[in-house]
Design a protein that fits this description.
Strand content: 15-25%
Structural class: alpha/beta
Number of strands: 5
Distance between the termini: 17 Å
Number of domains: 1
CATH architecture: 3-Layer(aba) Sandwich
CATH class: Alpha Beta
Helix content: 25-40%
CATH superfamily: Glutaredoxin
Number of helices: 4
CATH topology: Glutaredoxin
Length: 121
């Protein structure tokens, strides 16, 4: 698969998330910020998620949804979200895609060609 280019339709996907099954079609008629992070429980990724969480209502008021993505499992995401809430008092209100097979990440050109597993990310 090649990386999506400007003026091309975004690659369709259906994936398990921390909020149940989601697909690109669920966001039709809205703006969507699909953002990725390399791994749960990392300092930079944690601050990024806290920043998005604190502004989630502002994005929603602009008809914009947030959707996180990493190649970690749903169980890792849930534990990380709980850790963020316990340690920083911030609830993550948006879904995070479980992409352990790297299907969504590859469709969006987020994985280096030839990367064989999640250790390369």
């Amino acid at each position: 698969m090649s990386m999506p280019l400007i003026n091309e339709a975004a690659p369709a996907f259906s994936a398990n998330t921390t909020h149940g099954q989601r697909s690109l079609a669920d966001y039709k008629g809205k703006w969507l910020i699909l953002f990725s992070h390399p791994a749960d429980f990392t300092p930079v990724c944690t601050t990024e998620f806290i920043g998005f969480a604190k502004r989630a209502e502002l994005f929603k008021s602009m008809n914009c949804e947030l959707l996180g993505l990493s190649i970690d499992s749903i169980y890792s995401h849930l534990a990380w979200m709980q850790s963020i809430q316990n340690n920083f008092g911030v609830e993550i209100p948006f879904p995070i895609i479980d992409d352990i097979k790297m299907e969504v990440a590859q469709a969006y050109g987020m994985i280096h060609p030839g990367a064989a597993d999640t250790q390369a990310v």
